[in-house]
Write a structure and sequence with these properties.
heterodimer, A: about 210 residues, alpha+beta, B: about 425 residues, alpha/beta, 5-stranded mixed β-sheet, 4-stranded parallel β-sheet, 18 helices, 9 strands
Chain lengths: ~210, ~425
């Protein structure tokens, strides 16, 4: 688990209180591959992970797809879900966690149901993405329904400033449209249908 | 003017289905390739002179010819982890015409004698991954994938593998580690992937656009394709233009046309009344160019001669309304976040560059800090396993070189503001923004 800087106790002058980095309890058994007999795994989860494992010459390649599957089911890479995936893949939960912490799209703490990733990289930021993110933060930063994050280049600089909302790219979004966008997401609708990337035509004048 | 080969008719409804793709002559190039020998197909790709479209610009035919011959397990990996800031060409190609990529992969696999292929697509591209998965299913049902493709002795399995959000996984060896189910850390080279790549087997890794061009080359013939573009940079390139331009988007141009024609002619240039101040010719990893370089021909060699690179073909235009320190800060913060932390010069260098830029912005820096910052960049380049650190060092270094006066003025302005402000009043950031804008 990554060390959360918010939870490290500090003295008034900024130094960390001794003991903050105490190592794992050495009297405990080292992490082991979970025992199938004592680790119940939902049948559909097992089936999907095993299907992924069959695709690759080395089943370990299925780690990221398996973590995506866990996240789809539990909303985040929960310890319970990681244990189940580890049980199916015959790996230690610690190994899966070490992979999960590397990637920005795998969450090792609980997150809101609706993903809102706002691109704040250079092209979007030139077009006002920082103001857009501030608007999202103001209206949804505290809302437990939303998993709001500033993301690095999402690969949609042509519709800057943009956001990936539950996996669908939308843009350009003006900061004053943010409340309406969030309301649409709360209602389960497609926000700004006229500006969804999937309907966008090519800009190349000779493409037609 | 544009010359679409890949983008031609890309908005035709239903092009992402096999039916429409075939109606437009899809998979004919595959039939033609399978009627030729592997060597003949490889020869066509070699004489076409096509260079990799992902960033490094390495000749595709040569890459295939490096693979060892014979019956060993070889792998083809399509690098669809398009994360270079400013780049969005592969997204459009995969979303609207996934079969073209699949056809190109089958042809490349045939030329290299490869039987297993993967598309590593970045996790953020959900829609595009779905489209690809559907297309792969369709191609399997139509026997374009599987055992004995179209009655030939060529077999290929193809899977779409979704990443999970990491810029470093666009680096070929980090991509292989990620595909093997590990954290995406780059590997030491050599051995190069052509000898030891995925699962230690010989591996061919190519960008989406490169592979999607293979059917075009087979259809029109390598020699005919080589007539497009310039001698050292043949063919067409899908260029993603973004930032301060009026019509951002993908434009497919013949390599070698003046950059001005792309930025002004196609993308409309900066908004009324503003001027181009600097531009990245090939994604945010490329050294920046200024308004003086707008007439440089847009191809691999001319851009290298101008001191930059074509990279992934992503032009980011920045006009005179934006301070160069802001651009440097955004760029450096991105690389700091994405550094995998394996090599010290990159991990520490990106972090310290951001800290020094923050000092410049808050008025604590002296002009000497610019020299230190430039030296940090020089010490990153060439000292890491992969080029992520270099990718920050090159643009930042070029910005300090070309806009030194502006950096110095920024430092002075911020310092003057700090002296005016009483120590515990108003935060300096708010003042500095006013000073520079």
């Amino acid at each position: 688990m990554a060390i959360d800087p918010q939870r490290v106790p500090r003295f008034g002058h900024g130094s960390r209180v001794p003991g903050w980095d105490e190592a794992a309890d050495l009297s405990k058994d080292p992490a082991e591959v979970p025992d199938p007999a004592t680790t119940p795994v939902p049948e559909d989860l097992r089936a999907r992970i095993e299907e992924y494992m069959r695709r690759y010459p080395d089943p370990r390649s299925a780690v990221i797809p398996a973590l995506h599957t866990v996240q789809d089911r539990y909303g985040w890479c929960s310890p319970e879900g990681i244990e189940q995936a580890a049980c199916v893949m015959r790996l230690t939960p610690a190994y899966l966690l070490s992979v999960a912490t590397f990637y920005d799209m795998l969450f090792t703490t609980p997150v809101g149901r609706n993903d809102v990733f706002v691109c704040t990289n250079i092209s979007c930021s030139l077009c006002g993405a920082d103001e857009l993110f501030a608007a999202f933060h103001e209206h949804a930063g505290e809302d437990p329904e939303f998993n709001l994050r500033a993301f690095e280049c999402l690969g949609a600089c042509d519709i800057a400033p943009m956001a990936s909302i539950n996996g669908q790219y939308v843009g350009p979004i003006r900061p004053d449209e943010v409340p309406a966008v969030l309301d649409a997401v709360r209602r389960g609708e497609e926000p700004l249908p006229d500006r969804q990337l999937k309907y966008r035509k090519s800009t190349d004048p000779n493409a037609a | 003017m544009t010359k679409p080969l890949l983008l031609k008719g890309i908005d035709e409804p239903g092009l992402d289905t096999l039916e429409v793709y075939q109606r437009r002559g899809g998979y004919d190039a595959l039939r033609k390739a399978l009627s030729m020998t592997r060597e003949e197909v490889l020869h066509e790709l070699e004489v076409s002179g096509i260079r990799g479209r992902g960033g490094a610009g390495f000749a595709m035919g040569k890459k295939i010819s490096f693979l060892p011959k014979g019956a060993i397990d070889k792998y083809l990996v399509c690098n669809a982890d398009e994360s270079e800031p400013g780049t969005f060409k592969d997204r459009e190609l995969m979303q609207k015409n996934p079969h073209m990529l699949i056809e190109g992969m089958i042809i490349a696999a045939y030329a290299g004698g490869i039987n297993r292929a993967f598309i590593y697509i970045r996790g953020e591209y959900e829609l595009q991954a779905q489209k690809l998965e559907q297309a792969v299913e369709e191609a399997k049902r139509a026997a374009y994938l599987g055992e004995g493709i179209l009655g030939s002795d060529h077999s290929l399995t193809l899977w779409v593998h979704r990443g999970a959000g990491a810029y470093i996984c666009g680096e070929e060896t980090a991509l292989l580690d990620s595909l093997e189910g590990k954290r995406g850390n780059p590997r030491l080279k050599p051995p190069f992937p052509a000898n030891q790549g995925l699962y230690q087997g010989p591996t061919l890794i190519n960008n989406v656009e490169t592979l999607a061009t293979a059917p075009v080359i087979i259809r029109m013939g390598g020699e005919e394709y080589a007539k497009l573009g310039t001698a050292g940079s043949t063919g067409t390139k899908v260029v993603s233009v973004s930032g301060h331009v009026q019509r951002p988007g993908n434009y497919e141009v013949e390599l070698g046309i003046p950059s001005r024609e792309i930025i002004y002619g196609l993308a409309g240039g900066p908004p009324e009344g503003r001027e181009v101040k600097l531009w990245f010719p090939g994604g945010s990893s490329a050294p920046v160019l200024t308004a003086d370089d707008l007439d440089v021909p847009y191809d691999f060699d001319s851009l290298a001669k101008a001191g930059s690179m074509l990279g992934s073909g992503a032009i980011i235009v920045i006009d005179d309304s934006t301070p160069v320190v802001d651009v440097a800060m955004k760029t450096a913060k991105f690389y700091r976040h994405e550094s995998c932390g394996k090599c010290t010069p990159c991990r520490e260098g990106t972090n310290w560059t951001v800290k020094m830029l923050e000092r410049i912005d808050s008025g604590e820096a002296t002009p000497m800090d610019l020299d230190i910052m430039a030296a940090v960049q020089e010490n990153i380049i060439g000292n890491c396993l992969c080029v992520l650190g270099d990718a920050m060092a090159m643009p930042i270094g070029s910005m300090i070189l070309k806009f030194r006066e502006e950096f110095e003025a920024h430092i002075e302005a911020a310092r003057a503001r700090n002296e005016l402000a009483t120590t515990d009043e108003a935060p300096p950031e708010a003042l500095i923004q006013g000073a520079v804008a």
